[in-house]
Design a protein that fits this description.
Distance between the termini: 77 Å
Largest sheet: 10 strands, mixed
Shape: elongated
Number of helices: 12
Structural class: alpha/beta
């Protein structure tokens, strides 16, 4: 039931205090109507006795509280969904920003979603191909997984995000969509995303939400929830496999901190609200597979680590909730290797569930383990050479050092516009492993060595 009140007591910054309210609930949407017909929007942040604290979505500048009334709509913020949302750009509040027609919704969904019963979930076990060797080959993404990308200021995570959105696929005959949410970005970054999606054709299977740095703080908090609501509709009502890419979670957390400070809440670690973990979990836990539903939701949240610090609350708490991380490297970026994915600190905890016979190829696990081990050994050999000189290395150590160089040049450095199939990735892995003597490949089964190492060697 909608109720209007002319009891607005005060407005301080983006916060409005409304007295003598009844039946108002947390997160309820509010319309502030002015005498001249102008309408602004907000949501209820807190209710205490007969007083409601409202956060405005836009600036309060020019708002005359004596001539305004607050209408409580009796519902949370909603997003109107239909199959027509695919191929469209929206702002952080779910309004079209591509000059296209308004969406005629089949239904309206609360953007806060509903918690899933853990017993209703399926365990993720199907492969998603991103076309990026360092992810597909070594840190495999699985449908229903939450796999964040940990970046650093100045690294090309935006280009990596668009590459994944452009190249990701789940196999022939499967319905697939990408939901892309950008939060707190500049106009230049927004132009980059828009042009990339349109130029490469990725927009045809994507739903894009863009929130600018100049947009209201509360809109930034709503943006990922709008995106996840769209994903839930596509996955669980249209039976699509949906990949949700969200960038930048750090800017989202900064918006949370700003709202928390405005509410004068007691701060937690580094000034972030004490409920940061819970809030992030309400986003990340909306990924998954549900029993009885064909569709799935997979998440790749992207965050920049302030001061390159992995122990910062945002990456730290994200790591607790998600199933691994893809780490970008400043050293690799300085070498102009793209995308600069550092495989040694990267981890996909579900990779073993999405690879192997019938999913990728039967030798995938062996190649993965051997490449990791050989690259780590090669890096150690190169560090030893820097300290003692190359002459101090044994012949095998020199081979490992050479392997590490070739691995970075060929496997890691594929560029932002090369789309490799998983078979091409595994074949490239075998090509690199042939740099080493067969006796050094101790993590590969004999049958796989006979099939892929010896035979290919004889062909040469």
């Amino acid at each position: 039931m909608q109720k209007s009140y002319k009891t607005i007591e005060s407005v301080v910054g983006p916060l409005m205090l409304v007295r003598d309210v009844e039946g108002v609930t947390y997160n309820e949407t509010v319309e502030i109507e002015q005498k001249n017909g102008e309408t602004r929007h907000g949501k209820v942040l807190e209710v205490r006795d007969d007083t409601a604290l409202v956060q405005l979505f836009a600036s309060a500048q020019g708002l005359k509280i004596s001539e305004s009334k607050a209408k409580f709509l009796g519902r949370g913020l909603e997003f109107g969904v239909s199959p027509d949302i695919v191929g469209r750009f929206f702002d952080g509040m779910g309004r079209p920003r591509d000059n296209g027609p308004s969406i005629i919704p089949e239904k309206r969904m609360d953007i806060n979603g509903t918690p899933l019963n853990p017993t209703a979930r399926h365990y993720p076990s199907a492969f998603i191909q991103t076309g990026i060797s360092t992810i597909d080959g070594l840190n495999t993404l699985v449908r229903g997984q939450k796999l964040p990308i940990f970046s650093m200021s100045g690294l090309p995570h935006a280009r990596l995000a668009t590459q994944i959105a452009r190249q990701a696929s789940v196999g022939d005959g499967e319905k697939f969509a990408v939901v892309f949410a950008a939060m707190g970005i500049t106009n230049d970054e927004a132009d980059f995303f828009i042009k990339e999606f349109e130029r490469t054709g990725a927009l045809a299977h994507s739903v894009v939400f863009i929130n600018l740095a100049s947009d209201p703080t509360l809109e930034r908090i709503a943006t990922p929830r709008m995106a996840l609501t769209a994903a839930e509709y596509l996955a669980f009502e249209l039976d699509m496999h949906v990949l949700v890419i969200m960038t930048d979670i750090t800017l989202y957390a900064e918006a949370l901190r700003e709202v928390s400070a405005a509410r004068k809440e007691v701060p937690g670690r580094r000034g972030y609200p004490g409920y940061l973990y819970t809030d992030l979990a309400t986003l990340y836990e909306r990924a998954g597979c549900i029993k009885g539903k064909k569709g799935t939701i997979t998440q790749i949240p992207i965050l920049t680590m302030p001061e390159d610090d992995k122990t910062h609350p945002i990456p730290d708490l994200t790591g607790y909730i998600t199933e691994g991380q893809i780490a970008l490297s400043r050293d690799l970026d300085k070498k102009a290797l793209t995308p600069p994915v550092d495989i040694l600190p990267s981890l996909s905890r579900l990779k073993d569930k999405g690879i192997g016979k019938g999913k990728t190829r039967h030798d995938h696990s062996d190649v993965l383990n051997q490449l990791f081990a050989a690259y780590a050994t090669g890096k150690d050999a190169k560090e030893l050479a820097q300290i003692l000189g190359e002459s101090a290395l044994s012949p095998v150590d020199k081979l490992y050092a050479h392997f590490a160089d070739e691995f970075e040049k060929k496997f890691i450095n594929q560029g932002f516009y090369t789309n490799r199939t998983i078979i091409e990735t595994l074949d490239l892995g075998w090509e690199l492993l042939r740099i080493l003597p067969r006796t050094e490949l101790k993590r590969i089964r004999q049958s796989n060595l006979d099939e892929f190492y010896t035979v290919k060697e004889e062909v040469k």
